[in-house]
Structure to design on (963 residues):
């Protein structure tokens, strides 16, 4: 059952966490249950400002009669509570997190220092350009680096996450076509696309046209040809796609879409695979969004913040959101930076300038790695994914048996048919081994999918430990009594959660408890 | 070898051998030769941490408007509030920082429970029963609220008070390019929205009405009037709140808001040049199945213990795809957790005291400024913790002069406000001392002389 033992991990301990650091068994009360009337922990600066009462400050009729009821706890209790909560949370800093499509790589601590610099963190976003030259220079420097990496002409840094970048791209697509005479009505997406793609298409005012994947896991060229016409505004592609496979026909796809006057949108979720190897601009894409929280290692924050800059080719630059930071000519040698709104700008996508401190982290990461370092990232990410693919071939199904890029999609289909064990069971069992689980049941076109993205920052020893754990689980699936695998996990802070009950009897706040 | 990559050359060679490959280039054999980048990326070679930090510090050093150098009197949704050590320490815990969306609730109870507590706090602030797990920022929350309102009312006509944040209005205009919503801006009179008195139901009645409480100028709007307009027309009422001022004001929910949105940066998040911030979003029970973004609910595990999980997932983009209520996936969870910590630190008495201190300092400065010869009130309506004045010369000029005196004086009111360049929006947080405020008044008197 076990694959061939390979050299890299031999003799070294695996880098997996155990579930022991996660505190289980006893549930943590909510902050509201820890509250005791009259207790407090706050303190404010001594200001000497003359005292005024609420009655003097707020007109009758608008004044709140009772304060907003929050928890009343001491600082000590607050610290204990949130520290205990943190012990009930898996994270990249604790162990491998091979969550496919999310690029859960290590987040350098250096970037935390950057985000905390008073000269960056302490700047008000409405400060005029003359008083925030450092920030504008930083944004321009990052934009230029991202354009070099993607092979594009200019970028907006406003979108706060990938989905916001997608909508930005679709509005750019619409503005472009309107400028050509009519907006067109349809946007093509493959059936393997992220769910944000079709949702963004709808918000962009377009209809979704889905094209199937062929037996290689790539866009079916014949099917594509049947849906291309002059009502197609564009196509959204992820390359490598969500199966972790490179769309080898990308040049032909680009030519066909451009032939009918459509634009190509690049979903940058998987950009980590191709850094310095091949650029979306060189593949023929017109619009590219990047997920800085994936490719450029800004931490995921439990679900955000991210940042989703959008880079475009020359002809789309006049439509970019604004204002944008730009370098302007100056008389002396020192560059001067200013805000400028492109001539046909679609407008604003963020209240201010985007998730600025996330942008600063990304720039620091790019500077640390440099051009060669970025390519090395892609090479190692792809190496790790292919090693896992090769190692687990035979243990799990490999629906598309060809070299992958930065992630590999396996299937639990055969194991399920033989033993009734599902991808979900494998995922839950893996939690018990101290690893986060892969993405499961995505992409939708693969039955019982396990989507594994090791990233470049996991060592060969950690990969070895992960592979051994997955082999052990496959072995158990075949040998343990029926139903055993559905019982896992046992030692996590909570065991399997009743999701149906959560939806049926909605308790979205402490006050909704009955 | 790259900075954060563990592999030794021997290990890479061994892994390649396992794959039957000769070199790492072979990993990319599937990439057509003609498309490959034949040169290296034209970026500087990578450097070590000290060099990176030196570069970033140099950039930071050329920002004059940092709050530790220029005393901050600018607000407009971004405030220089106290962030105590305890919030920094807890919100900086790497379990919160380096995890992702809680797809596996068994190992994500920390983030899930913190967000559940956050949702409870936001719902209480808003005076509504449900709050989501966060959106990108105040403006994006307003965009999502309008999308919800149009879907719920079935009418694409959106009336925006001219008193909501001008950047929110710009974002709503941008979003409407895709959604086709018809936006009408209702002007202000003396600082508050002048809702039309006639029955507007004849021609394109609104499906959504959006108003600030207080509004961008800091003025307290009459929400009863806005609610009455909605009752007459069947529109949903969306209220954009300042969550700190909400510590003193009757809740928007109590006034009859259907959806409450706001910018949550004030709760523990640094100014950060505008991001990452926190989009607050709460709504009435009737709209919960149209709620954008993620929602955490309480349930039990197989042993019957309390447990938390993202719920009503059928609304979301990864399941409903083109029929989803919103495309939001990654949100601002870390800022939501930060807000829960900060609000835990403030507690019931602290939020009320914070709001009162901001308001009293604002009123103290407003009275002092209006005593100056050349400074006029921009509007007469009552304010809470922010106000605008009219100056005898362009506000941008005054801001530059005030910077030389050591202050970030405020935000010039731009073309979004119809009558020119002489308005300045000013806020005073609980961090400003009487000495700072008095010095500001002296400097401003000089700047406008």
């Amino acid at each position: 059952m076990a694959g061939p033992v390979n050299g890299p991990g031999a003799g070294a301990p695996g880098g997996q966490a155990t579930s022991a650091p996660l505190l289980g068994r006893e549930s943590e009360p909510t902050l509201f249950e820890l509250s005791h009337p009259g207790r407090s922990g706050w303190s404010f600066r001594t200001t000497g400002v003359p005292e005024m009462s609420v009655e003097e400050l707020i007109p009758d009729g608008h004044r709140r009669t009772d304060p907003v009821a929050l928890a009343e706890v001491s600082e000590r209790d607050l610290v204990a509570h949130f520290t205990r909560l943190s012990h009930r949370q898996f994270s990249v800093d604790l162990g491998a997190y091979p969550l496919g499509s999310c690029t859960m790589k290590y987040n350098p601590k250096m970037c935390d220092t950057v985000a905390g610099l008073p000269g960056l963190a302490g700047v008000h976003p409405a400060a005029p350009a003359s008083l925030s030259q450092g920030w504008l220079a930083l944004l321009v420097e990052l934009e230029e680096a991202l354009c070099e990496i993607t092979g594009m002409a200019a970028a907006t840094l406003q979108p706060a996450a990938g989905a916001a970048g997608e909508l930005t791209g679709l509005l750019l697509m619409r503005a472009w076509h309107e400028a050509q005479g009519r907006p067109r009505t349809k946007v093509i997406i493959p059936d393997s696309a992220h769910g944000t793609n079709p949702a963004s298409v709808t918000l962009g005012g377009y209809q979704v046209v889905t094209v199937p994947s062929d037996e290689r896991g790539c866009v079916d060229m014949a099917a594509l040809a049947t849906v291309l016409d002059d009502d197609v505004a564009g196509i959204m592609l992820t390359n490598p796609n969500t199966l972790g496979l490179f769309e080898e026909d990308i040049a032909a796809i680009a030519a066909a879409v451009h032939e009918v006057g459509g634009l190509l949108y690049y979903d940058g979720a998987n950009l980590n695979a191709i850094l310095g190897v091949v650029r979306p601009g060189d593949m023929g894409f017109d619009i590219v969004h990047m997920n800085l929280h994936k490719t450029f290692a800004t931490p995921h924050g439990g679900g955000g913040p991210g940042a989703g800059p959008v880079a475009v080719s020359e002809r789309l630059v006049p439509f970019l959101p604004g204002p944008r930071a730009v370098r302007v000519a100056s008389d002396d040698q020192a560059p001067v930076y200013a805000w400028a709104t492109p001539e046909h700008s679609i407008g604003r996508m963020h209240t201010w300038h985007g998730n600025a401190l996330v942008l600063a982290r990304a720039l620091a990461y790019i500077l640390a790695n440099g051009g060669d370092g970025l390519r090395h990232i892609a090479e190692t990410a792809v190496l790790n994914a292919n090693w896992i693919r090769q190692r687990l071939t035979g243990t799990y199904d490999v629906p598309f048996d060809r070299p992958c890029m930065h992630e590999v999609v396996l299937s639990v289909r055969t194991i399920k048919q033989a033993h009734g064990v599902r991808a979900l069971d494998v995922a839950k069992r893996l939690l018990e081994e101290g690893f986060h689980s892969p993405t499961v049941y995505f992409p939708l076109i693969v039955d019982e999918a396990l989507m594994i993205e090791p990233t470049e920052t996991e060592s060969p020893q950690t990969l070895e430990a992960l592979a051994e754990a997955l082999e052990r689980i496959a072995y158990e699936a075949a040998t343990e009594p029926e139903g055993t695998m559905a019982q896992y996990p046992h030692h996590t802070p909570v065991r399997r959660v009743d999701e149906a009950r959560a939806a049926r009897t909605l308790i979205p706040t402490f006050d909704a408890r009955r | 070898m790259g900075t954060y990559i563990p592999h030794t050359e021997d290990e890479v060679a061994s892994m390649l051998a396992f794959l039957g490959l000769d070199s790492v280039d072979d990993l990319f054999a599937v990439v057509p030769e003609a498309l490959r980048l034949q040169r290296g990326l034209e970026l500087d070679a990578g450097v070590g941490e000290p060099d990176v930090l030196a570069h970033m510090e140099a950039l930071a050093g050329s920002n004059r408007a940092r709050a530790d150098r220029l005393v901050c009197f600018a607000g407009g949704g971004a405030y220089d509030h106290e962030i105590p050590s305890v919030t920094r320490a807890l919100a900086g815990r790497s379990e919160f920082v380096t995890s992702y969306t809680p797809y596996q609730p068994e190992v994500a109870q920390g983030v899930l429970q913190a967000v559940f507590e956050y949702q409870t706090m936001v719902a209480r602030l808003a005076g509504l029963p449900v709050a989501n797990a966060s959106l990108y920022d105040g403006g994006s929350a307003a965009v999502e609220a309008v999308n919800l309102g149009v879907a719920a009312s079935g009418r694409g006509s959106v009336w925006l008070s001219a008193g909501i944040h001008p950047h929110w209005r710009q974002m709503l205009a941008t979003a409407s390019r895709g959604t086709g919503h018809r936006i009408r801006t209702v002007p202000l009179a003396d600082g508050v929205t002048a809702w039309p008195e006639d029955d507007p139901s004849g021609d394109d009645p609104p499906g959504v009405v959006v108003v600030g409480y207080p509004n961008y100028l800091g003025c307290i709007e009459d929400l009863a009037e806005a609610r009455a307009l909605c009752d007459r027309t069947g529109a949903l009422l969306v209220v954009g709140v300042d969550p700190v001022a909400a510590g003193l004001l009757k809740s928007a929910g109590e006034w009859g808001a259907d959806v409450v949105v706001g910018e949550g940066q004030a709760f523990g998040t640094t100014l950060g040049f505008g991001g990452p911030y926190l989009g607050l979003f709460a709504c009435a029970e009737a709209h919960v199945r149209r709620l954008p973004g993620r929602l955490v609910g309480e349930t039990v595990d197989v042993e019957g213990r309390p447990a938390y999980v993202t719920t009503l997932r059928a609304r979301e983009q990864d399941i409903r795809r083109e029929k989803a209520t919103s495309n939001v996936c990654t949100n601002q969870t870390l800022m939501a957790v930060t807000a829960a910590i900060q609000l835990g630190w403030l507690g019931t008495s602290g939020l009320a005291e914070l709001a009162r201190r901001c308001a009293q300092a604002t009123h103290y400065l407003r009275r002092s400024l209006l005593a100056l010869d050349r400074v006029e009130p921009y509007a007469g309506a009552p304010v809470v913790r922010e106000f605008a004045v009219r100056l005898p010369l362009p506000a941008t000029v005054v801001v530059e002069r005030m910077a030389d005196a050591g202050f970030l004086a405020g935000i010039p009111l731009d073309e979004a406000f119809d009558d020119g360049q002489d308005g300045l929006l000013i806020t005073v947080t609980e961090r400003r001392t009487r000495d700072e405020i008095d010095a500001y008044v002296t400097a401003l008197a000089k700047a406008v002389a």
Chain B is about 35% helix and 15% strand. Chain B touches chain A through 211 residues (CB under 8 Å). The radius of gyration of chain B is 25 Å. Chain B has two domains: 71-83+347-447, 86-341.
